[in-house]
Amino acid sequence: MSNKLMTQKYITMLDGKKIPQIGLGVWQATNDETERAVTTAFEAGYRSIDTATVYENEKGVGAAIKSSVLNRKEMFITTKLWNPEHNNVRGAINKSLELLELDYVDSYLIHWPAPSQNLYVSAWEELIRAQEDGLVRSIGVSNFLPEHIERILKETGVKPTINQIELHPLLSQKEITQWCTNQGIKVQAWSPLAQGGEGIFKHKDIIKIANHYGKSPAQVVLRWHIQNNIIAIPKSVTPSRIIENFNVFDFELTLDDLTIIDNLNQNKRLGPHPLEFE
Length: 278
Ligand code: NAD
Known about the structure:
Helix content: 25-40%
Structural class: alpha/beta
Order of helices and strands: EEEHEHEHEHEHEHEHHEHH
CATH topology: TIM Barrel
Distance between the termini: 45 Å
Bound molecules: nicotinamide-adenine-dinucleotide
Largest sheet: 8 strands, parallel
CATH architecture: Alpha-Beta Barrel
Strand order of the largest sheet: 3-4-5-6-7-8-9-10
CATH superfamily: NADP-dependent oxidoreductase domain
Number of strands: 10
């Protein structure tokens, strides 16, 4: 099946908006690399891009959007509020929009709760206002534990649409995923490929499944995310890998395959713990 025939899957969030289930992550890419990667991704069929203020490449995302033939309405652009700006939400949003050369972003997330700052509730109130003012379409969080979500819900009455968390076969996060699902909050996986390291691509069980379907280990891992109703944002700046990571809508893993991958869990974080990261 050619790329053009691939059918992207969408997930409907609790505010009624739809988000593509596969997006391109651009962490640790320069502006130039980002512009090229986003351009390749749009051509391959991606519509969703995940950046953040702290990645310092919103300008590259904006340049690719500007030169794309796609309609802005087809795209789903996410950016995030960096920790030192919890008390400068409107300023941070305006700066992101300026760099992205956009009037609005589709999803705006609080990047980390940074609990010792104790500013994430007031930041959330500002996200709600920015949404009311049309600067951001959907609002969500990242790296929030249930206790942080419960607190913003109790104090503002507004639920996040998304919680973007570290999630891959070595850290399957079943408990928090179930909790978010019960709340109607969609889970978005960062480092969905375990950052390409840690041996998951060389694991014999993943290779066996990949060979069975004629797919790559990365495609099998992304398919595991999709069938678990997780939104995934794999990163690559290599055109062939960008295309490969999107070609995951034409095969289906069995329940046995899913269980085999579930069993690789080691509760192993590659990034910081949300309670510790400031
Ligand atoms: P990832 O799990 O997406 O792995 C990316 C790496 O895997 C690439 O750099 C490359 O080395 C390798 N790779 C990618 N495709 C491959 C393929 N088809 N075959 C072989 N190797 C391949 O890691 P990530 O970049 O950490 O996470 C993805 C995105 O998640 C980021 O770019 C960023 O947008 C987001 N993110 C968010 C947070 C957060 O706190 N919210 C933290 C980290 C990352």
